[in-house]
Amino acid sequence: MSSPEPTSAPRAPHADPEAGSRPESEWRDRLTPAEYHVLREAGTERAYTGEYWDTHTKGSYRCRACGAELFTSREKFDSHCGWPSFWAPLADDAVVYLHDRKFGMDRVEVRCANCNSHLGHVFEGEGYETPTDQRYCINSISLTLVPDGE
């Protein structure tokens, strides 16, 4: 899996076109302190506390910061890890990847391609029976679920 630096990606449907150039002071005003910590400071919500870790509602998952469509319920699966898990993003250009070596770990961070907000991490080779053998472990607080038909 490649880990490209964040780039100016094509604008995703429903995404805020100004999000990529928004100053951090404006993000602080727009997001709650908990949202800001996860989305802009690459924090992590506690396992089993987010609103979507066990949700089975059909729909699309959008970036809570900018509204870009990132994942759908079709790729969501029960990993029992305490966070929403997906086996693939909605589109290859919906997210970007960064090598994350914080806390003595070697991981791949997942960020929104539209606004560069932290979403979570992607892991491979864990043995889940998914088409990609990947688990996108995403913070609920990074997402907004839009049910089908809305």
Structure explained in plain terms:
The chain is mainly β. Helix content is 11%, strand content 28%. It has two helices and nine strands.
Topology:
Blueprint: H1 24-30, H2 33-41, E1 59-63, E2 69-72, E3 76-77, E4 85-86, E5 95-100, E6 107-112, E7 118-124, E8 134-138, E9 143-147
Antiparallel strand pairs: 1-2, 1-9, 3-4, 4-8, 5-6, 6-7, 7-8
Distance between the termini: 34 Å
Structural class comes to: mainly beta
Query: Looking at the structure, what is the overall shape?
Result: globular
Number of helices: 2
Fraction of residues in H or I helices: 10-25%
Q: Based on the structure, what is the oligomeric state of the protein chains?
A: single chain
What does the largest sheet look like?
A: 6 strands, antiparallel
Attribute tags:
150 residues; mainly beta; 6-stranded antiparallel beta sheet; 3-stranded antiparallel beta sheet; 9 strands; 11% helix
